[in-house]
Design brief:
The protein has 444 residues and is an alpha/beta fold. The chain has helices spanning 63-74, 89-105, 138-148, 151-163, 174-179, 184-193, 202-228, 248-254, 295-309, 335-341, 350-360, 381-394, 414-423, 432-443, and strands at 230-238, 272-277, 282-289, 314-321, 325-327, 367-372, 397-404, 426-430.
């Protein structure tokens, strides 16, 4: 199985089918593997002494392979029934370093044991999170995990180490921080638990978020420069090869003399239009919901605001809100500082944020208000809709973003979103790239 589906949370490598869900395994009976013996009787999980049996179950997985997978899933608490194959020692130790913390948190004893993880002949205990029999440093564990697991699995293990198990020693050493794989998921996890972390790891948290932000800016900035930079100028040729600037007429003329033996045109010179810069300034007010579910959108909103603040002709106001409203415009140029200042969690008063934006409007016809939220309004929906109608009637352009990250697969209040759309706000689930394109269309 792949991914990080260990019970209660382990990652296990290798091809095949994921093990059945077993949330009650730590307190329940020994788990049996799927499949059947040659005589049709249910097959119990095999230990190493049964390695010679290779009967396959309905999913094509042999008893030996099923037993191997369950041993990796369950960890040392399956030691009485299942031994670790020689080739899986490194895997088991690496998984145990992280995921055995789950058992410890539930009060299960350490050591080899049967049900509940109680050692035979020994007293029970409530051990700390240090895994039994494993001597890893945080940096050593990172290196081992990186070498054993696919990148996607390794990234998820990092996220769970920080966000679920509080493995803050990963953030306390600069070499360890540099060895981590920066990802949106890791940054999101850090934003969600940042308030619970020890101040001693603040530098590590900042460095991880800096690396993630740098990567996102590198990917998004060219899209914003192209989309928001100005309108198409068909009188000038551009060397910036972007599909929306493709000039098919000039491309045809430039390649008319190039044909193959069958008379088909060989397109070797592709032409693109340049774009004119905007002469007038636009105000873009970005309202970002900082409730707990909005961590990923907050990350991308901060990055988008930072990119926009560096473009000529655009005045950016960045506002974060929950039940209160915080104007972060003075930090809009610095996404990292915005993210490290934000306080995820709490309630949601969208109406209050929209009324605040209403008071910031200087020239309605040249103002865009972008609301990034899941639209679960904790305040007055009627007041929210009234504020949206006033803005719309004054000439302000409004966009409601149900998501602003790379997936654009939001969970949002469809009822409130529908009412906002009826009041004059264009509501959509957009990736940052699509947001850039939409903004470019509005501003030009």
């Amino acid at each position: 199985m792949t991914g990080t589906d260990r019970t209660p949370g382990r990652a296990t490598p290798g091809p095949g089918t994921a093990a059945p869900s077993s949330d009650t395994v730590p307190n329940g009976p020994p788990v049996t593997a799927t499949g059947a013996m040659p005589d049709g009787a249910p097959a119990t999980t095999r230990s190493a002494s049964h390695a010679g049996r290779t009967a396959a179950g309905p999913d094509g997985v042999s008893d030996r392979e099923a037993a191997r997978r369950w041993r990796l899933v369950l960890g040392r608490y399956a030691a009485e029934r299942l031994d670790v194959p020689d080739g899986d020692q490194r895997l088991d130790s690496t998984l145990g370093y992280l995921y055995d913390r789950e058992y410890a948190a539930r009060g299960h004893a350490a050591g080899r044991g049967g049900r509940g993880g109680r050692s035979r002949g020994g007293p029970g205990s409530l051990d700390g999170s240090a895994p039994h029999g494993v001597d890893f440093s945080a940096l050593g564990w990172l290196g081992e995990a990186r070498s054993l697991f696919p990148r996607e699995t390794f990234e998820r293990m990092q996220v769970e180490a920080v966000g679920r198990y509080g493995l803050t020693e990963l953030l306390g050493d600069r070499d360890t921080v540099e060895a981590m794989e920066p990802s949106r998921e890791l940054a999101t996890a850090l934003l969600q638990v940042r308030g619970k972390l020890d101040p001693s790891v603040a530098d590590g948290v900042r460095r991880v978020i800096e690396r993630v932000v740098e990567d996102v800016v590198r990917r998004l900035r060219p899209r914003f420069l192209t989309a928001v930079g100005g309108r198409v100028d068909r009188s000038r040729r551009s060397m910036h090869r972007v599909a929306r600037n493709f000039d098919w007429k000039r491309t045809l003329r430039a390649n008319l003399g190039r044909v193959d033996a069958d008379g088909r045109m060989l397109v070797q010179d592709v032409r693109f239009n340049a774009r004119q810069k905007r002469a007038l300034t636009w105000d873009v007010i970005v309202l970002v919901d900082q409730s707990g579910s909005m961590a990923a959108s907050l990350l991308y909103s901060a990055v988008c605001a930072g990119i926009l603040s560096g473009l000529p002709g655009i005045d950016v106001r960045l506002v974060l809100f929950d039940t209160s409203v915080v104007d972060m415009s003075h930090l809009a140029h610095d996404p990292v500082s915005v993210l490290l200042t934000a306080q995820l969690g709490g309630g949601t008063d969208i109406a209050r944020a929209v009324r605040f934006a209403e008071g910031q409007v200087r020239d309605p016809s040249r103002t865009v208000v972008a609301l990034v939220s899941d639209f679960y309004e904790g305040g007055s929906v009627s007041e929210l809709l009234a504020a949206v109608r006033r803005l719309r009637s004054s000439g302000v352009t409004l966009l409601g973003l149900a998501a602003l990250d790379e997936t654009a697969e939001p969970i949002y209040d469809q009822g409130t979103a529908r009412h906002l759309a009826e009041a004059g706000m264009e509501v959509a689930a957009l990736t940052p790239e699509r947001f850039a394109e939409w903004l470019g269309e509005v501003l030009t």
